Amino acid sequence: MDKKAISPQDLEWYEKSYEDKDDSLVLERAVSHNGINNSAADYKADEKMKRVFSVEVPEQHVADQKQSGRCWMFSALNTMRFKIAENYKISPKFELSQNYVNFWDKFEKSNYFLENVIKTADQPLGSRKIDFLMETPQQDGGQWDMLCAIIEKYGVVPSSTMVETYNSNRSDELNQTLNLKLRRDAEVLRKMVKDGSAEEKLESTKSDMLNDVYRILAYSLGRPTKRFDFEYRDTDNKYHMDKDLTPKEFFDKYVNINLEDYVSLINSPTDDKPFNETYTIEMLGNVVGGRQVKHLNLPIDELKDLAIKQLKNGEAVWFGCDVVQDSDRKKGIMDTHLYHKDALFSTDLKMSKGARLDYKESMMTHAMVITGVDLVDDQPTKWKVENSWGEKVGDKGYFVMSDDWFNEFVYQTVINKKYMSDKQLEEQKQAPKMLEPWDPMGSLASFKK
């Protein structure tokens, strides 16, 4: 037998070690019947996560992304509706149309993909970059800068103007169909490049492909709004009507924020990304010629300090995290002390944040909104979070996140530049270093509820 193989003697030793452990059979019955998380849960951790916060922004109706991976989109639009509610006394149940942004995001991602196909057509099938590109031509997920690129080009509309559809709420069928179409188109374009087709012919063919994509999206999501009347009653029951607006006019008038003022900050404590430098990711984006994804890497304490400043000024904070780690979605708790799996299995499961990123144990999977923080002696102990999974989880859709969980599993925040120090602003202006397409900081927030 190969020395590296598991031998019968090894198996005997493993079995004896198991039987010699006094509580093995008790734990086997408990874990096999109740599951790992239930068996490892520390219910005392719930007591520390009381939903009281010293700093909060006003609550609003919690939106529901349903069976789609549009968390990044929902959370970003949720931060923007705070402004509308504050300035125009609009009902807390008011929402901006996620489906409108979704349509344009998928359309632009399709063009972005086809452009990358043409640019990389000289690379062989089976190369890591081509495999990466073909793995997911487009998807529901995204990052903050990608949302900004869509809004800067297309604006936004109220949800009543372009409502959700079956395919926006349940995106699997649309994604499968659209990705089939795009992979087929990739085959055609790669062959054309190999055969020496002229650039004009490539662009003409790509335009025909995008015409098909538009039709698929219009059938599935509805045609995007061009002009509309904005009609509402404010919280004082006063009637308002604003006629014949374009989506960009609506954004400029009612949302009225300069997206250039908001920048992405990350915490990636890995050797390849020194702090206080900026980064971008190859082949990550949606709008060709639009806003570039750009991150400034900072120590975690600086991310938290800036988030607190923004919250104290009455403004929520968009953030990206790994929501599947140490979280109870039903209770709405995210806490590193929630489960003790290492004690349950008598093994060491500890990894540093940097090691989790390097060894693919963790990455950004979900985006939400920080709406409050509890400060004790000016130090954060827990954070209030607005999710986008509807009101049936957590406390009517709101979650609580321990400060330790923030340290370990929050990877990105979006902050208004006015809260940043002069040093941070200078660092943010740097030209970004290009990271590989598969870098964990290029992961897209796309977790489905």
From TrEMBL:
Supply the InterPro entries for this chain: Papain-like_cys_pep_sf (IPR038765), Pept_cys_AS (IPR000169), Pept_his_AS (IPR025660), Peptidase_C1B (IPR004134)
Q: Which GO terms describe its biological process?
A: homocysteine catabolic process; proteolysis; response to toxic substance
Report the superkingdom from the record. Answer: Bacteria
Q: Name the source organism.
A: Fructilactobacillus fructivorans
GO molecular-function annotation terms? cysteine-type aminopeptidase activity
Record's keyword terms, sorted: Aminopeptidase, Hydrolase, Protease, Thiol protease
Q: Where in the cell is it found?
A: Cytoplasm
Q: What's the protein name?
A: Aminopeptidase
UniProt-annotated catalytic positions: C71, H366, N387
